[in-house]
Write a structure and sequence with these properties.
Layout (H helix, E strand, L loop, with lengths): L1 E2 L5 H6 L4 E2 H7 L5 H9 L3 E3 L2 E2 L5 E3 L5 E3 L2 E2 L7 E6 L28 E2 L7 E8 L2 H8 L7 E8 L4 H9 L2 E2 L2 E2 L4 E8 L4 E8 L6 H8 L3 E10 L2 E2 L8 E3 L2 H12 L5
Parallel strand pairs: 10-16
Antiparallel strand pairs: 1-5, 2-5, 3-4, 3-6, 6-7, 8-10, 8-18, 9-10, 11-15, 11-16, 12-13, 14-15, 16-17
């Protein structure tokens, strides 16, 4: 355990393998970082048997942490990109016994969970991690990570309607933020269209509701990109680990407002 007082270079070097106590608690999935800070201030956290009530404490891999008397299991943070197939729940368990996204990671000894969600019937790119801070950072609406969806819709939207989607459209939970919309193809005979839509928000069923608002039902939906990440080389159900560089880039992107 180490009490971090200033930003001297030596201290930074000494503490490179040390992490802030609240971060370790958040990584373990016990609480958000802010909640972890509250737990510390409330005297509910012990390090090596000693109650810690200061927020500057850093801990290393050997330190034993307890929250409310329960030992915190430390896990190496891991980051995955999954090509979620349709017909899978974006959760770690389902009361109805349906397939969930973590079923694809059988044998993994880490408690990962999805960062945000895709609908049961939506396929595409989904990130999973056991790093609570990272998940919170990417999901925070303020950081506006861009997501690109391909939607097949019933009906052919007019240019005006597509403009409306771009400018923002009123949904029951408020106006949507500006989006970018591109018609990729249309089938006049079948009265269907394939449209690319780029949004920065992540409201529940947002893309489906946006198209419903202009009178077009989404028949199929796929998330093709998340920031600079895509699904290249993956089939539905496949996953890969993110490289440390990709994780760093995502963090930097979120902190810079998601628009680099
Ligand atoms: N928008 C939706 O409507 N559904 C998704 O799964 C993702 C975005």
């Amino acid at each position: 355990m180490y009490l971090f007082h200033g930003k001297s270079k030596m201290i930074e070097e000494v503490t490179t393998t040390m992490e802030r106590l609240q971060k370790v608690i958040a990584h373990a999935g016990i609480a958000s970082r802010r909640k972890a800070e509250e737990l510390i201030l409330q005297g509910k956290v012990k390090v090596n048997g000693q109650v810690v009530t200061e927020l500057g404490v850093k801990v290393g891999p050997q330190d034993k942490i307890e929250v409310d008397g329960i030992p915190v299991e430390r896990e190496e943070p891991v980051y995955y990109l999954l090509y979620k197939p349709r017909g899978v729940i974006s959760s770690v368990k389902d009361e109805k016994g349906r397939k969930v996204v973590t079923d694809f990671f059988e044998g993994l000894d880490k408690r990962i969970y999805p960062i945000g969600r895709l609908d049961y019937d939506t396929s595409g790119l989904l990130l999973l991690t056991n790093d609570g801070d990272f998940a919170n950072l990417l999901m925070h609406p303020r950081y506006e990570i861009e997501k690109v969806y391909i939607a097949k819709v019933r009906g052919i939207p007019t240019r005006e309607q597509l403009k409306q989607l771009e400018k923002g459209i009123m949904l029951e939970d408020g106006m949507t933020a500006p989006a970018k919309v591109k018609m990729l193809s249309l089938d006049k005979r079948k009265q269907t269209a394939i449209i690319e839509i780029r949004i920065h928000e992540g409201r529940n069923r947002q893309v489906r509701r946006m198209f419903e608002a202009i009178g077009c039902r989404v028949m199929k939906l796929k998330r093709e990109r998340y920031a600079f990440l895509d699904l290249k080389g993956l089939n539905p159900g496949d996953y890969r680990e993110l490289s440390p560089h990709e994780v760093k880039q995502l963090r930097a992107l979120a902190l810079s407002g998601g628009r680099r």
